[in-house]
Batch of 2 targets.
Target 1
Amino acid sequence: MNALLVYPEFPDTFWSFKHAIRFIHKKAALPPLGLVTLGALLPEKWSKRLVDTNVKKLTAADLAWADCVFISAMVVQRDSARQVIARCKEAGLKVVAGGPLFTSEYEKFGEVDHFVLNEAELTLPSFLADLEMNGARRVYKTAEFCDIRKTPTPMWELLDLRRYASMSIQFSRGCPFNCDFCNVTALLGHRPRIKTADQIITELDSLYNLGWRGQLFFVDDNFIGNTRFLKTELLPALMDWRKDKRGVPFYTEASVNLADDESLMQMMVEAGFDAVFVGIETPDEESLAECNKGQNKNRDMVEDVKRMQRAGLQVQGGFIVGFDNDSPSIFQRQIDFIQNSGIVTAMVGLLQAPPGTRLYERMKLENRLLGDMSGDNVDGTTNIIPNMGLNTLREGYHDIMRNIYSPQQYYQRVRTFLQEYKAPKIRLPLDFQRFLAFFRSNIRLGLFGKERFQYWRLFLWTLFRRPELMSLAITLAIHGHHFRKICELRIF
Ligand code: B12
Ligand code: SF4
């Protein structure tokens, strides 16, 4: 069997980093980890080929080679997934679909032959057994969650590693919290399931042996779901692994209570973590109560962010406007929070209700659903009728985005952050493309960019105040260029 694994293209969005990764000549920010995991779960004797259409074209030759196509996608790739499916059907191929998009809304894809939903570790074996007997059903799904200690090492060799800015790896699935707008718990459960430290070391070794020295994203929903295991097993193992390695800085996602645990932060930094994405959502206590984000309540979150920065973790933040409790004053309060905390990468979105969440059920009961969500939570759209009125919400949202990504505010925020940040010990090895990126940014941003004054001001400020953070300052300037492009595209 020749199995063709296809990942549809991402639109040009906040998280695609398309306008930033060009500076280092990369094609995509992250690899399709679901498909490389699937590759390892498919029978060993099958021939496998992976086409991530974010890094290369799906050609007629690929389709002619294949006996069967396996496609994975998130909601944001809905349109491009439809295009891929149409091409595969035209070529007369059987299409098998899985991953978060199809798990959430498979009924909308009539052309797909087989849906192998939820976690492939659980649903794929019965599909393969039925296929062998020529009796495969249309839908395979489960309400169970798998034991990820049995998940195999992803088949990294299916990827062209040189095309990616970062690699990803997964230590845990699921989250102990219960925020009402989030479908992580519906998709992956409440109890964080973890891999063993040995499994992670084997995965790291296999990537390292393939030559990977770049950034590595631990794509956990909440990396600190099991702190005891982290402190006693995983982080000591990562520190040990690092001893004879170059590069490979880590970043991940965690809840804000990470800031309460000084020793955990120190161990993470020692193990090579230098950044963490945190769901801040809103500085408004009532709105936090409304969405059941108790872990963010009754704390000084600006101070929490600074504590993480001082420990050596750059904080990227997720923010939401459009809660029922929000009044128009929320827009300025969000701007103030973002500026004061020095969260450079602030993903601000309108509240959306993904199917399968408690918010979705509430909106349905209240007749406030507006159809499908776009899947891109930074495009200024929503699938619910907000309390404050859609126009007020949209205008306020556009104001936030215009404000925080204007060169003056953005560069100010970078300085606020760099002032606080403890420089990481683990550095990315300087390769030729990163070396060139420095010149490219000097020309594109420093000579032709609207932000040129701010760019050189940051350059000089960093040179004299935090010279050890120069490469990070340039990287953040390049990210700012991407975020501004996205704002322009969305006409914010
Ligand atoms: C890494 C990640 C990203 C990366 C994407 C990198 C990439 N190239 O894929 C980035 C940072 C770009 C990203 C962005 C966004 N993401 Co995201 N992301 C994740 C995250 C944290 C990990 C994904 C991953 O690699 N998992 C590990 C692999 C092993 O799991 P998997 O892909 O689910 O695959 C398993 C199964 O699904 C299945 N499977 C997968 N594919 C296939 C295919 C077949 C044929 C079969 C049989 C089985 C199968 O088997 C695998 C093994 O069990 C998930 C949450 C999560 N824990 O999964 C969210 C998640 C996928 N993202 C989500 C969302 C909403 C977003 C954003 C809108 C913003 C946000 N809230 O984060 C943006 C949208 C993108 C954009 N605007 O460009 C949602 C998707 C919801 C949905 N139903 O589609 C998730 C589930 C998190 C959440 N609830 O908010 N994201
Ligand atoms: S803490 Fe994050 S992953 Fe967990 S339920 Fe809340 S939003 Fe979802």
Target 2
Amino acid sequence: MRPATTMDVCQASPRVPRCPLWSKISVALLLTMAQANTVACTKETSSTNALPKTESTAAPQPSPQTVPPDNAPLPHIDAARAFQYTREVTAFGPRYMGSENHKKLERYIASHLQGDQVEDDAFTTDTVEGKFPVHNIIAKFPGEKDGIIVIMGHYDTNYPLRNMGFVGANDGGSSTAILLEYANQLRGKKRDGYSVWLVWTDGEEAVQQWSDTDSLYGTRHLAEKWDKDGTLKKIKALMVMDMIADADLDIVRATNGAPWLLDLIYAAAQRGGYQSHFYATEGAIEDDHVPFFKLGVPCADVIDLDYGYNNVFHHTTQDTMDKLSPKSMEIVGDTILETIHLLDQR
Ligand SMILES: [Zn+2]
């Protein structure tokens, strides 16, 4: 996200980049970024929790009263295992909708969820490239409290780049893998807090060019289904994980989300000492949370769209394992686990 505008942003005259790779990023973000030269240019030097303050981009830190006191030990994922999952998922190669590798990956995910309560939200979608089978894979981990925390991440890879060897290590791989690791963390005894549902979403990517109708095939369907069957009302928080393993990690504050939830995530990051990787920049982002956000669900998109200098690795064949780090998966993984813990207290 930021890198594609870093040069633009740091130049004197703001302008909106024209790169098609920016399909995910709304004009609002681009404009915000274009005005945000201070943040983008100073972020790298800011290693403390003091976020740069500019009117348009300073991500507000949570007020103390929004964060309950918490003396419980910080939760930790097994980052090495999560990284190994990313490696294995990426090794399948291109995993776009309708492909054989996509089916193989579905079987791989299912093989890691044996014994868990799994629902296959399957349907056929119509696109400008034809009809495709779509599967949102939902693993449910029940809790004592009434309500559901949903964690999502897409497992399909970019369709337009399907014949160019695009393997989506970060974009598709890391999101699939972090959810597999969360399943490891959640299975076992019934949770004391809310139920947690993990959703491997399908058809997140556009088949031609990102638009309201060519994108988010899986989650648009699931949001409608959950609206009809009453599930949406039970969701306390919904968080999307996307591109979370970049070795140079900087999670953008996606402003089309619930401010209190974004604050809670930031507070969780602070507890782990990870806050320098969160929210130095902000803007609205189109991702799997959007269909739910539109229906009033408290959402947060947890995404690093600053993938390589000038975002050069995003949606390119350079989105490969060597750009990623298990430490980044640990930072995001632990932060969202802690966020779940903070949500349980509410
Ligand atoms: Zn993508």
